[in-house]
Amino acid sequence: MSEMSVNPSDVEDPHLEAAAEWFVSLAEEGGAEALRRWQLWHDAAPAHQQAWAKVERLQSLLAGAPLQAAHVLRVPVREAQKRERRSRRQLMACIGVAFTTGMGWALLPAAPERAPIRWLASARGERRLVTLPDGGLAWLGSNTRVGLAYDGQRRDIYLAQGVLQLTTGSDARQRPLRIVSRDGVVRPLGTRLTISQFAAHTVLTVQQHAAQVQAPGGTMATVRAGQRVRFASTGCGRVQQATVADDAWTRGLLMALDMPLPEFAAQFALYSGQAVEVAPALASRRVSGTYQIDAPERSLATLAEVLDLRAERSASGWRLRPR
């Protein structure tokens, strides 16, 4: 098995540092303007393109590496995410760990070269429909970032952040298809499915046919049409019955039935692109109803009136507080 050839001095390369910083910025900011600025930087010099390819290749290799190895290298990133921002040095530290420690064996592949990743993104508050190279369809929810790596042997889709609904295409070459997310790998079995990546877990819902998911711990679950499962770094939860609410976001709606307010806030934030903070005193409140994610101010005003609470703007979005 061959390893990725990397000069240790690359870790101090200023172009590589800039590429790592751009990777962090795109993950944190998202949106069309951030992508436009990144594209200008990327196209400005061959050295920028080479540095970006190294960072991008690292990400794809970690996603395709043995799950235990990927889990080890995700730990510092997860800790940084809890603080809501990852510094350039933290990401560079991950690169240094991958390139200069015993993790080299995990940075596959021997041959052939993996396909370059083509990144697609949606802005906050935007939903975007994309036709895939194999004829499949992908709905990107708000502030979503997805990478496509199709080559002669396989079809890989990387969900870096956000929510994705995939209707698989009929591939003439019958290449295996997988969706690599932070919390596990999903293998569609000829299907339409939705993957929603929250702060601490990911939810897979299958609308048609079936899919298999494998979490980093090695646990697996088969999810059939009309079912859903929650999975995270610790493993897969119990497969449950899905509802029409699971893909209501594709129609611009968030549907809740006796849902805890913090869970409602997390879903509203994911699907609308508007951060929603819930005061601890409101944690026991429950939400029922249908809310428009395309009209967040009006929806949160309605929620505040129904639950007799206050919805206030904050620096990052909205804050729900007792009256």
UniProtKB/TrEMBL annotation:
It comes from the Bacteria. GO terms for molecular function: sigma factor antagonist activity. Residues 122-208 form the FecR protein domain. Pfam families: DUF4880, FecR. The keyword Ribosomal protein does not apply. Residues 17-58 form the FecR N-terminal domain. The chain crosses the membrane at residues 91-108. Keywords: Membrane, Transmembrane, Transmembrane helix. PANTHER family: PERIPLASMIC SIGNAL SENSOR AND SIGMA FACTOR ACTIVATOR FECR-RELATED, PROTEIN FECR. This is Transmembrane sensor. It comes from Janthinobacterium psychrotolerans. The lineage of its organism: Bacteria, Pseudomonadati, Pseudomonadota, Betaproteobacteria, Burkholderiales.
